């Protein structure tokens, strides 16, 4: 079951009472996350800010707080719990780029086909 951001009785997000670990301006994902917060009417003030996602995951694993980040194998540290977010404001577009005027190896062609198939499957539910 997917999770929505739970709210307190006054409508403020329950996460607001947690120590939130955010990203510093040097991390490109910070702007994306902040725009999602704005669109969903949620605001979290970080207690800590880290330069990169690996450090954020380490801070969470050390018990310093909670965070919002993409679920990837490289960030799956011992003891972390991942909850998917189902909020229409928290969907963003991810692109795949390559140069048409350069040689594309069979491995890259396979990856492109895989990525396109995954996008199709995500949109059709198959």
Biggest β-sheet description: 2 strands, parallel
Number of strands: 2
By CATH, the architecture of the largest domain is named 3-Layer(aba) Sandwich
The named CATH superfamily of the largest domain: Periplasmic binding protein-like II
Give the total of domains.
2
CATH topological fold name of the largest domain? D-Maltodextrin-Binding Protein, domain 2
CATH class of the largest domain: Alpha Beta
Question: Measured on Cα atoms, how large is the radius of gyration?
Answer: 17 Å
Characterise this structure.
The protein has 126 residues and is mainly α. The protein folds into 2 domains: 14-90, Periplasmic binding protein-like II (D-Maltodextrin-Binding Protein, domain 2, 3-Layer(aba) Sandwich), CATH 3.40.190.10; 93-126. It is built from 3 helices and 2 strands. Strands 1-2 form a two-stranded parallel ribbon. Helix 1 (29-40) links the parallel strand 1 and strand 2. The longest helix has 19 residues, at 106-124. The radius of gyration is 17 Å and the shape is elongated. Mean pLDDT is 79; it is low at 120-126.
């Amino acid at each position: 079951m997917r999770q929505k951001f739970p709210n307190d009785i006054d409508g403020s997000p329950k996460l607001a009472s947690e120590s939130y670990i955010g990203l510093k301006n040097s991390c490109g994902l910070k702007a994306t996350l902040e725009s999602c917060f704005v669109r969903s009417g949620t605001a979290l003030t970080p207690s800590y800010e880290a330069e990169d996602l690996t450090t954020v995951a380490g801070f969470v694993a050390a018990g310093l707080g909670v965070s919002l980040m993409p679920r990837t194998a490289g960030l799956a540290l011992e003891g972390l719990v991942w909850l998917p977010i189902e909020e229409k404001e928290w969907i963003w577009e991810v692109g795949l780029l390559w140069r048409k005027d350069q040689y594309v190896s069979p491995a890259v062609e396979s990856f492109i086909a895989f990525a396109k198939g995954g996008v199709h499957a995500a949109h059709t539910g198959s």
